[in-house]
Structure formats: structure tokens, C-alpha cells
Amino acid sequence: MRKVITIFAMFLCMTELSAQTISHIETKGNWYYIYDSNGRKTKTLSNTSGTLLGYSSTIFIMRNGSWYYIYDANARKIKTMSKSATGDIIAVAGDTFTSRIGSWIYTWDKTGKRIHTRFCR
Question: pTM of the entire structure?
């Protein structure tokens, strides 16, 4: 019976970790503090990781030099993309983000796959 309870408790802990969301990212001094939907601080990142460009409940994007880094809610790096190929990040929402290169607007998913392109005057 103890084994069953232990396994069940481990399963609940793993489920909670995978379901983590971002409610807020706060900048204080040289640190970024990531808070979950319960208001708890879940991760702390140094500002040497880059400049925070935007975040949603599931991802956040940092820029360091000419590179963009896409992180999940657990602050694990999902993808690295070059600024020259991606353009300027203009918005982050849900599991997607939007960038602009010249007169073109691109929508990307969190894995760095381009999912939509449109012309903008």
C-alpha cells in the first residue's frame, strides 16, 4: 500500500511540474524572477542570459547579441534563433510569437517553425 501511495504522490508532483505556467516575469537588478500562476517564484535567471523581449503563459523570449532564445515555463531552452533570420520580435502570445522583417510579418510557433507570413504596408 505504501508503494502505491508513493507512486501516486510522485505522479502528482510530476504532473504539477509539467503543467507550470508563467504569470509574471519581474526584473530586479541583475536578475529575472519567474512567477507561476500561484504567485510562487519558480525560477531565477541572471540578466547575462540576455534581455527579456516578451512572455506569455507558456514561453518567454530573450535576446543576447544577435540571437533569440526561446524558453518554456520551466526556464528550459526550447530553441535558439538568429536575429537576422527571424527579424525583430514584436509580440509573444500563447505558444507563438510574431516578428517583422521589413514589410513582412511572420508568425512562429515555440519550436521556431514559421507558421504564417503576411505582407504589411
Answer: 0.82
